[in-house]
Amino acid sequence: MAKPGLLVVLSGPSGVGKGTVCKALLEKDPQLVLSVSKTTRKPRPGEKEGLNYYFVSKEEFEEAILAQDFLEYAEVYGHYYGTPRQKVEKMLQQGRNVILEIDPQGALQVMKAYPQGVFIFLLPPSAADLRSRIILRGTEDQESLQKRLAAAAQEVAQAEKYNYVVVNDRIEAACERIYAIIQAEMLKVSRNKELLQAFAKEVGG
Amino acid sequence: MAKPGLLVVLSGPSGVGKGTVCKALLEKDPQLVLSVSKTTRKPRPGEKEGLNYYFVSKEEFEEAILAQDFLEYAEVYGHYYGTPRQKVEKMLQQGRNVILEIDPQGALQVMKAYPQGVFIFLLPPSAADLRSRIILRGTEDQESLQKRLAAAAQEVAQAEKYNYVVVNDRIEAACERIYAIIQAEMLKVSRNKELLQAFAKEVGG
Is the ipTM of this complex over 0.85? Predict the structure, then answer.
């Protein structure tokens, strides 16, 4: 049996560049495979079944919820989005490293469902950068702006629940750091006990 | 105050190539500094004070033992060898990453004295390789050969106490893996809590 792969969860505040970093990482690391989400929304022009999403009916999605076949899911503007558990677990069992690129709410759900995952929080280069991004995106309604800032601050505060924090100052540098994390995680003794036991036995025997 | 550095402990069976890998790593990673041991043996031709060892008297060494100024020490063929605690801790406080290249007995002592260190066990490419190395080095006395093999097997069995296991199949590859481990360890959330707290406060405030 192959050694099980790593589940790598890449998250961080909205707009930090998770998608761009994830894409660069998939190009750099051929051992890594992206988990494709299921959604009930309609495909947009150019989106392909099984590449961008698995497009399913609301009924099918809700059956999968009841069957606990999501590592995490959410409803956003009336559409469901979720990470299919069985597909991910099958790839992990085959020894593939699987990456999820999801928002912090989803990441917290995955921590509960799969605590042995590798949880990486992507930070913008500075707090000022994150603030100005939120301000630029926001409406002119002062109250909702304060809410957005408070929500972002809370997301960053919850980064303490993750295993690693990576600053996205440059895509290439962030990508290198995440690649190093994946390499290091594969070298952990806890993931190589069988190798060590077989080795000790063979030397001694 | 600088963020404290990492104490990286590189160990493994005798002859696995710890010294060669360590030297290559120091060339690759300018942030890394080698801990220089104290010894009571005389300098060999070409050895330099403070570079290869700190050469001290038996009295000075024994005073340092009593003052608990060793992270680990051992007596080998009538000479003391030890890792000076204060020098290492000073470099760590200055934010330097410090590497110790020591035998498994020493590494186990450091685990007790400094459990927050990063413990890496270097393995030969195969058990057969380790066996044949021991056999080639051994005498023809069958009994002592069995003892050596049993000791090596026990050292490998104790590798489970380390954090990481790295196979030294090629020096360059082993060096890359250890470099990745150091990069990843520096990105751990547990080592970046102040950054995250300051960040969350600045975004929210």
Answer: yes
